[in-house]
Specification:
The protein is α+β, with helices and mostly antiparallel strands. The chain has two domains: 193 residues, no CATH class; 60 residues, no CATH class. The strands form three sheets. The chain has a three-stranded antiparallel beta sheet. Strands 6-7-8 form a three-stranded mixed beta sheet, with helices on one face. Strands 1-2 form a two-stranded antiparallel ribbon. Helix 9 links the parallel strand 6 and strand 7. Helix 7 crosses helix 9.
Length: 304
C-alpha cells in the first residue's frame, strides 16, 4: 500500500501576485537617479544597476515588505538548497515572477554579448573552458513607465477628493456634431450639422413660402459647439547637483511627477503633446521612454 506524505508548501503563488502592486513597490529601483550619500563629496554618481541579480534582490525585498514572504520562509527555502540562492526554489519563483512582468509588457530583458578575450601572441589549439555567465539586463518599457506615472498620479490626487475630468475649454466656438450652442451661417470647412429650422426660415424670409422651396448657399445654417483646443507642454527637470543638496534626493520625486503628468495628458488630453527637457550646464530634450533611466549630475549649475 502506497503512502503519500504531505508537507507545508514553501514559497508563494506566483500567479496570485498583483503585478501592479509589485511595480509600485519597485518604483524606486526602476527610477534610480544615481544618487548616493557620498555624491556631494565625490561628485561621482552610481551607474544604475540594471542587472538581473539587482532585479531579483529588489523583488525579494518588495515581497518581504508586502509580507507576502517572511524571513522564515526565505530561510526555509534556502535551507533546502544548502543555504544557496542559486538553484533554490526561491530563485525559481522569482524568475517566474520576472517572466510574468515581461509577458505583461512591464519589463524587457536584453542580453549583452560578452567581449571577446584575446591574448596577444597566443597561437595553436584552443581550449574548452567553463562557459561565461550570461549578462542579462532589464529595462522598463513604455507601458511600465506609464503605469508608474499612473500610480504616482493616484497618490498625488488621492488626498484631494473626487473631481470630474474634462478637456481644455476655451471661450471660442466651432461647428460640430454635438449641438450645444446656437447656430451660424454655414462657411466652407464647417461640419455639416445642419440646423434645419434656421435654414428653412432663412429661405422663406428670402423668397417667401413656396413649393418647391429653393435653397441657396446663403440659406444654410449649422450648429455650433464649444471649441476645445490642444496644448503643448514642456516639462523641465533640473538635474544639477542642487537636486541632491544636503543629502536629499529630489530628482527621483521630480521624475515621478513628470511621469504622472505624462499619464494624465496621455489619458485625458490625447491630442496634446508633452516634451521633457533636462537642464544643467546645457539643456537637452530626452524621450519620455528614457526618463526613468535619467540621472542627476555631475553638473554645477542649472542656468543653461
Amino acid at each position: 500500500m502506497k503512502f503519500i506524505r504531505y508537507s507545508r508548501f514553501k514559497g508563494f503563488d506566483v500567479s496570485g501576485i498583483d503585478l501592479g502592486g509589485l511595480m509600485d513597490a519597485l518604483s524606486n529601483q526602476m527610477l534610480d537617479s544615481g544618487y548616493s550619500e557620498d555624491y556631494w563629496w565625490t561628485r561621482e554618481r552610481n551607474e544604475p544597476d540594471d542587472s538581473l541579480d539587482a532585479l531579483r534582490n529588489a523583488i525579494l525585498q518588495s515581497l518581504l515588505d508586502q509580507e507576502i514572504l517572511s524571513d522564515q520562509d526565505v530561510a526555509e527555502m534556502l535551507a533546502d538548497n544548502d543555504g544557496k540562492f542559486k538553484g533554490s526554489v526561491l530563485e525559481q519563483l522569482i524568475n517566474e515572477l520576472i517572466e510574468r512582468l515581461v509577458e505583461e509588457g512591464y519589463l524587457n530583458l536584453k542580453e549583452i554579448p560578452p567581449e571577446p578575450i584575446t591574448q596577444p601572441g597566443s597561437e595553436g589549439q584552443g581550449e574548452i573552458g567553463e562557459p561565461m555567465p550570461r549578462n542579462i539586463r532589464f529595462e522598463v518599457t513604455e507601458k511600465g513607465l506609464d503605469f508608474l506615472g499612473y500610480k504616482t498620479l493616484q497618490k498625488l490626487l488621492g488626498s484631494m477628493g473626487k473631481s470630474s475630468m474634462g478637456r481644455h475649454e476655451t471661450p471660442d466656438q466651432e461647428t460640430g456634431v454635438e449641438s450645444s450652442l446656437s447656430s451660424k451661417p454655414y462657411e466652407f470647412g464647417d461640419v455639416m450639422n445642419l440646423d434645419v429650422t434656421s435654414t428653412l426660415i432663412s429661405a422663406i424670409a428670402r423668397e417667401g413660402l413656396a413649393v418647391p422651396m429653393n435653397l441657396e448657399y446663403s440659406d444654410l445654417w449649422v450648429y455650433q459647439q464649444e471649441y476645445r483646443s490642444s496644448c503643448a507642454t514642456v516639462v523641465m527637470l533640473d538635474c544639477s547637483h542642487s537636486m541632491i543638496l544636503y543629502g536629499e534626493d529630489r530628482f527621483t520625486p521630480a521624475k515621478k511627477v513628470a511621469l504622472a503628468l505624462a499619464h494624465l495628458i496621455r489619458t485625458q488630453y490625447p491630442g496634446d503633446t508633452l516634451k521633457v527637457v533636462l537642464f544643467h550646464d546645457d539643456a537637452e530634450e530626452v524621450p519620455l521612454s528614457k526618463l526613468g533611466s535619467m540621472q542627476v549630475g555631475p553638473y554645477h549649475t542649472n542656468t543653461a
